[in-house]
Structures are given as C-alpha cells and as structure tokens.
Design brief:
- The structure is a single chain.
- This protein is an all-alpha fold.
- It is 87% helix and 0% strand.
- It has two domains: 139 residues, no CATH class; 155 residues, no CATH class.
- The chain is globular.
Length: 348
C-alpha cells in the first residue's frame, strides 16, 4: 500500500475535526431553535442586565440592593412607556395630514411616472388599488385566520418579555453569586479557565450592548432631526424605527431609512425623497467609519466582512432574532478564545 502524503494526512485530520465542530454547531442551533422563546428571553434578560447594571450599582450604594433593582426596572419601564406614548401621540396627531399628503403624493407620483422616460399607464396605480381591494374581499377568511395567528404570536411575545424581565431581576440582584456557584460545580481543574472566560464574555457583551445602544440612539437622533427639518411626516416614529433597526448592523439602518424615503416620496415628492436617500449614505458612512469602530473597540474589533457574514448567517438560521444576536455572539466567542489562548503567567 503506497504511503499517504503528509498533505493528505493533514487535510484529513482537519476535515474530520471540522465535521465534528459543524455537527456540534448544528446541534446547538437545533436545540436553540426548539426552545427559541426561552433563548430569546434569556438573551433579552442579559441585555436588560447589561443596560441597567450601572444605574443599579449606583443606586445600591444608597439603598438596599433589592430596592435598587426595583427602582431601575420600574424607572426604565416608565421611560419606555413614555417614549411609546410620545410616538402614539405623534402618529395620532399626524394621521389626518399624512393621509391627505399620501393621496396628493400618489397623484403626483402617478403624473410623474406618466411622463417620459417611464410613460406608465396613468390608471396603473388606480387599477392596483382596485385589485388590492378585490383581493382583500375574496381572501377575507384567510386574512382573519392570519390575524388570529398574529394574536397568538402576540401572546408568545408578551410571555417572552415577561420571562426576560423576570430573569433580569435575578441577574441584577445576584448575577455574580450565581456565576460563582456555577463555577464551583465544575471540576477544580476547569474552574479557573471557565471563570476567566466568563468574565471576558460578560465584559465583551456589556461593551457591545452599551455601544450598539449609543449607535442606535445617535442614528435615531440624526434621522429625527433631519426628517423634522425636511418636513417629512411621522418623523418621531420613523426615528424610533431607525433606533430599533440599528441593532442589526450594516443592514437594519438602510432598511429603516428606505421606509423613511418611501414616506418622503409619497408625502413631499421626489426631491425630498432624494435628500433622504442621500441621508442614508451619510449616516451609513458615519455608522461604518466612526460609530461601529468605537463600539468594536469597547467589545472586540471584528472585520466588517465578519460582521456582514455573521448577520446574514444569523438571519438565515433564526430570522430577525438571529440577525440581532449573531454579532454579539461572535464577539463573545472571539473574546473568550483570545483570553483562553493568552499565556498564563507563571508563579513569581
């Protein structure tokens, strides 16, 4: 039997290891997908803990720890409801104006598309509206079933949020002691490395969470001010949409601004929409070259290609939730790898 070449032997050894790692990763994703509500709830609980940890520690210096946790959670809930109330008031106050501007905008768009070089049939949009109405009438039962399914999904969302808040209470109050207890259950030879890796993972996760919130708030502020100056209706809700979308790096912000561009096109015309499109480019440059490098310097500096591939892979594996979770998960894994590979200092 001829000897096996060293190259083939090395490739085979790496190949079976990659197969084992791939099978393990697939098994993890299967488990997470099977219990995705619990996974999402625990992830949100960690996010809440990372955001409310600093104010809770400040309050704990002047009051009991349990009271500090309660004040932080109730205060953040009141702030969130205030923001949602502001958005709802803005939508209610501008609904009439927005409807009129949309009708006028659709008429102007129809006239613009009827002129060269498009030469679209002037009745195309009207026919489209009538077809949509006919579809809704003929598929009313299907739409009703979809609405009922959506109500069931709303119950799942509320249950997930309740579990997230419930878990964050324990994380904020005794997260450190819980992690110490977990490490003590491991074999003695593993405790040190697991403790070091856990501290690095939490440091990276909190740094990324604080940084991405800063990016989202900055983007939302820029979008809100720009849309207000341009006179685009629903500036506050669109800014809130930008804040939420910014949690999906590289992809979320352009999608949210595209929605703003559609609103500007229908309400204010193509010139204002073109300005909003230019805003997409400007904010993308600020986010990509200034804000995200700052975020990654707080957590782990990842190459933009790694970020993009992580977001797409997460979206394919678990939809929107996967796109949001992918980058912090990769950052945490890379941070733990770097810490555990560092040489351990010997005794003095």
């Amino acid at each position: 039997m001829p000897p096996v070449s060293p190259f083939l032997s090395t490739a085979a050894s790496y190949a079976w290891r990659l197969l084992v790692v791939g099978a393990a990763v697939y098994a993890v994703f299967v488990v997470l997908g099977r219990f995705h509500e619990i996974t999402v709830a625990l992830f949100l609980g960690l996010v809440i803990t990372a955001l409310l940890g600093p104010p809770t520690r400040i309050l704990a210096r002047r009051m009991p720890s349990s009271l500090a946790v309660a004040v932080s959670l109730v205060g953040s809930a009141v702030l969130l409801m205030g923001v949602l109330a502001l958005v709802g008031e803005a939508v209610a106050g501008e609904s009439g104006t927005l409807g009129r501007e949309f009708r006028e905008g659709l008429t102007s768009i129809e006239r613009w598309l009827a002129r060269p070089p498009f030469r679209l049939d002037p009745h195309a949009l009207s026919d489209l509206q009538s077809k949509i109405g006919a579809y809704v009438s003929s598929h009313r039962s299907t739409l009703l079933n979809t609405a009922v399914t959506g109500a069931g999904q709303l119950v799942q969302v509320l249950t997930t949020l309740a579990l997230a808040v419930f878990s964050s209470v324990f994380f904020l109050h005794a997260g450190g002691r819980q992690w110490e207890w977990f490490c003590e259950q491991l074999p003695r030879r593993m405790r040190g490395r697991v403790a070091v890796g856990g501290r690095a993972a939490w440091r990276t996760f909190t740094g990324y969470t604080h940084g991405i919130v800063l990016v989202a708030a900055t983007n939302a502020l820029l979008v809100g001010v720009a849309l207000t100056l341009l006179g685009v209706p629903l500036a506050v809700p669109l800014a809130l949409l930008e804040f939420v979308a910014a949690f999906v790096p590289l992809i979320g912000s352009p999608v949210a601004l595209a929605v703003a561009a559609v609103v500007a096109l229908a309400a204010k015309g193509p010139v204002t929409a073109a300005v909003v499109v230019a805003l997409i480019v400007i904010i993308g440059q600020i986010e990509g070259h200034l804000l995200h490098p700052l975020v990654m310097s707080w957590a782990v500096r990842l190459h933009p290609l790694v970020v993009a591939v992580s977001v797409v892979a997460g979206a394919i594996a678990a939809g929107v939730v996967g796109a949001v979770v992918a980058v912090p998960l990769v950052s945490v894994i890379w941070s733990v790898r770097c810490v555990l590979r560092a040489p351990v200092p010997g005794p003095p």
